[in-house]
Design goal:
Largest sheet: none
Order of helices and strands: HHHHHHHH
Structural class: mainly alpha
Number of strands: 0
Number of helices: 8
Strand content: under 5%
Length: 150
């Protein structure tokens, strides 16, 4: 049996979340049971957030070890030497940054109208800080650090 396609995973995950044993579903689908179990657990937003935090802390601790950090740097150098990997990595980062730049929490400039953006750009070129420029164009809702309003 061939491994499931990306479109098959949601159905497998739903079966595990509905109470079927991951081991049984995985055997039937021809996939690794541990992988299926983790995919099912990570489908729960609360678990996924806690798991991300645990992973982040674990990686911080690992990278604090100079030997591990050096080995990790060498692995990444070797990976990035592969043109195919480097191209895929650039594309993933490009997509991630597009999504971040479209998010008003990350980039409040997306909330400006065209006229406000033109005024903002003119003020920034004149040396205004971000908050002072927002204040000058009347967008006090975007001022984060006091700016001229303080």
């Amino acid at each position: 049996m061939s491994p499931p396609s990306a479109s098959d995973w949601p159905a497998l995950i739903a079966r595990v979340r509905a109470g079927e044993r991951a081991k049984d579903v995985a055997r039937e689908a021809g996939v690794d049971g541990r992988r299926l179990r983790m995919k099912a657990l990570n489908a729960d937003p609360e678990f996924a957030a806690a798991n991300r935090e645990r992973s982040r802390e674990r990686m911080k601790a690992l990278h604090a070890d100079p030997e591990f950090a050096a080995a990790s740097r060498e692995r990444m150098k070797a990976l990035n030497a592969d043109p195919e990997f480097a191209a895929a990595h650039r594309e993933r980062n490009r997509e991630r940054m597009k999504a971040l730049n479209a998010d008003p929490e990350f980039n409040p400039l997306v909330l400006l109208t065209e006229a406000e953006r033109a005024d903002y750009d003119t003020l920034k070129q004149a040396g205004y800080t971000r908050d002072d420029a927002f204040f000058a164009i009347g967008r006090l809702d975007l001022v984060q650090h006091g700016g001229a309003a303080a």
